[in-house]
Amino acid sequence: MPHTSSGSSEVNWEEGTVWAPEEARIFEAKLSEIEPTDSDRWTKISAALPNKTTQHVEAYYKWLQSLLRERGAGHAGH
User: Fold this and answer.
1) Cβ proximity of 30 and 63 under 8 Å
2) What is the C-alpha to C-alpha distance for residues 4 and 13, in angstroms, rounded to an integer?
3) For the packed helices 54-74 and 21-33, what is the interaxial angle rounded to 10 degrees?
4) Residue 23 to residues 10, 26, 75: CA-CA distances in angstroms?
5) CB 36 within 8 A of CB 23
6) What span, in angstroms and rounded, lies between the C-alpha atoms of 31 and 27?
7) Local structure of 3: helix, strand or coil
8) Does the CA dihedral 31-36-38-40 come out positive or negative?
């Protein structure tokens, strides 16, 4: 489960990959620009993130999706 580093806004998650807020913003921008059906989607997004591999990008996306599902299921009344 991800957690915030002490005194930092960087996000750590189970694979040990740290995502800085600026990286998360770039990821989100590229995610909205590139079609979900594009077979090179993760490669194109990782190209904009010098410190991230294609595997990091895809895993981050999957983690975010699971987090959103958990929050949606647990907080439907809000």
Assistant:
1) no
2) 9
3) 90
4) 10, 5, 27
5) no
6) 6
7) strand
8) positive
How many Å apart are CA 44 and CA 56, to the nearest integer?
13
The position carrying tokens 């294609």 is 54
Q: What is the pLDDT of residues 31-60, one digit of tens each?
A: 999 999 999 999 999 999 999 999 999 999
44 and 38 Cβ atoms separated by less than 8 Å: yes
The fraction of the chain above a pLDDT of 70, given in percent, is 72
Identify residue 74 by its one-letter amino acid code.
G
Q: What is the pTM of this model?
A: 0.71
Residue 41: count other Cβ atoms within 10 Å of its Cβ. Answer: 19
Q: Do 37 and 9 meet the contact criterion of CB atoms below 8 Å apart?
A: no
Q: Which residues pair with 19 in a beta bridge?
A: 11
